[in-house]
């Protein structure tokens, strides 16, 4: 969740609607009561939405009806590479994914709302909140709404490793001599920062440079780990 910029938030728009709705939103994990809470401690999911959005209205209605909030499912997924195996049925991907279930409620406390806005801003670019024009004006705060998802359960699924072929295929000379197997890395990296048409600062701020360098270093390190496994590990189907 902390590595993904976009959270896909799903909910039932109406009891009579047969299809759920999924909206891509900006999101971040945090604990307003205990901001220093670690990954092994309870955290809420804060998501950004406009006050006129259908999801915000449904959440408001649920709270007015005495419910803890709108039931939602929040999911993220990242593909790290393509697994090319000897058989079409053992092709796969290296990936990381997570799904959270909980109730979304409007954040009405002003101090929590400002804290959440800072959390979301710094999730995208660490330290950015202190570098931009402050404070937010009344119009910005009125038009921007924050939803807090109290997480009740969740799960994660990760694949990180080499191709996993059937033993029979690996031991078949005809297959081995005619089919290429391996791994195609898919690495998400940040490019060089580009100034806007109206930017008046000559140099790229340090926190922006740090973001690009840190993000790319982390991405490359994780990819190097996966590539090392592909080159060195031999596994059988069903063991990864």
From TrEMBL:
Protein name as annotated: Flavin-nucleotide-binding protein
Alphabetical list of PANTHER family matching this protein: 5-NITROIMIDAZOLE ANTIBIOTICS RESISTANCE PROTEIN, NIMA-FAMILY-RELATED PROTEIN-RELATED (PTHR34071), FLAVIN-NUCLEOTIDE-BINDING PROTEIN (PTHR34071:SF2)
Pfam families attached to this UniProt entry: Pyridox_ox_2
């Amino acid at each position: 969740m902390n590595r993904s910029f976009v959270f896909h938030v799903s909910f039932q728009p109406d009891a009579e609607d047969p299809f759920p709705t999924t909206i891509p939103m900006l999101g971040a994990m945090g604990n307003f009561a205990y901001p220093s809470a670690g990954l092994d401690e309870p955290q809420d999911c804060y998501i950004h939405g406009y006050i006129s959005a259908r999801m915000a209205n449904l959440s408001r209605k649920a709270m007015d009806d005495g419910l803890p909030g709108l039931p939602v499912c929040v999911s993220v997924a990242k593909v790290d590479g393509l697994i090319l195996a000897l058989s079409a049925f053992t092709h796969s991907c290296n990936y990381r994914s997570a799904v959270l279930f909980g109730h979304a409620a409007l954040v009405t406390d002003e101090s929590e709302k400002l804290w959440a806005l800072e959390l979301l801003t710094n999730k995208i670019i660490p330290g950015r909140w202190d570098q931009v024009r402050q404070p937010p004006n009344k119009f910005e705060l009125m038009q921007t709404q924050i939803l807090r998802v109290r997480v009740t359960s969740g799960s994660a699924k990760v694949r990180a490793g080499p191709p996993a072929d059937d033993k029979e295929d690996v031991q078949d000379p005809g297959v081995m001599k005619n089919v290429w197997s391996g791994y195609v890395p898919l690495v998400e990296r940040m490019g060089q920062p580009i100034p806007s048409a109206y930017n008046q600062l000559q140099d790229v701020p340090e926190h922006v440079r740090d973001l690009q360098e840190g993000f790319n270093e982390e991405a490359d390190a994780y990819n190097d780990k996966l590539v090392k496994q592909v080159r060195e590990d031999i596994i059988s189907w069903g063991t990864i």
